[in-house]
Amino acid sequence: MDGISKGQSALMSAQKISKKAVKAGFEWENEEDLYNCVLSEIKEFKEARTPEDKEEEMGDILFAAVNLARWNNIDAEQALLKADKKFISRFRIMEKNADMPLEHLSPAQWDELWHKAKAELKIKQC
Q1: Which of 25, 37, 43, 58 has an alpha carbon within 20 to 30 A of 51's alpha carbon?
Q2: Terminal CA-to-CA distance of the chain, rounded, Å?
Q3: DSSP calls for 54-99
């Protein structure tokens, strides 16, 4: 595990750690096992009782997700950056379309605005 920089993002470190483990022969037998791992980690997160345990399990979820990305030849860092950009775009549309400040909306109103923003972005992309 030499060569893992402490100055890079945790996500990039996780990708490098995962690749190094694979080079040493530590790899999933198949993608289905990896899906089961992700689901298992989510279950463990749901069952965690303390903030410390939840934090640990969230780390396990994220690391498993990085492995799933690697398995599918996806750069997890780039995928997350794209997801960030998409979320910001949707959120800005929600702010623009809301009749009142967002903090005053009900969960149902949030959901309605979110789905309208998703649809609006899809129309713009076509």
Answers
A1: 37
A2: 44
A3: HHHHHHHHHHHHHHHHHHTT--HHHHHHHHHHHHHHHHHHHHHH-S
Tell me if the pTM is above 0.85. no
Look at residue 76 in the predicted model and tell me its pLDDT. Answer: 95
Residue 60's nearest CA partner among 94, 92, 37, 36 is 37
DSSP3 helix / strand / coil % (the chain, rounded to 5): 75, 0, 25
What is the pLDDT at residue 125? 65
Using CA of residue 60, residue 79, residue 2, residue 27, what is the dihedral sign? positive
Taking the C-alpha atoms of residue 23 and residue 123, their distance in angstroms, rounded to an integer, is 43
Contact partners, residue 68, CB within 8 Å, separation at least 6:
31, 34, 35, 38
Q: What tokens does 125 get?
A: 């992309």
Q: pLDDT per residue over 32-44, tens digit each?
A: 999 999 999 999 9
Identify the three-state secondary structure at position 7. Answer: coil
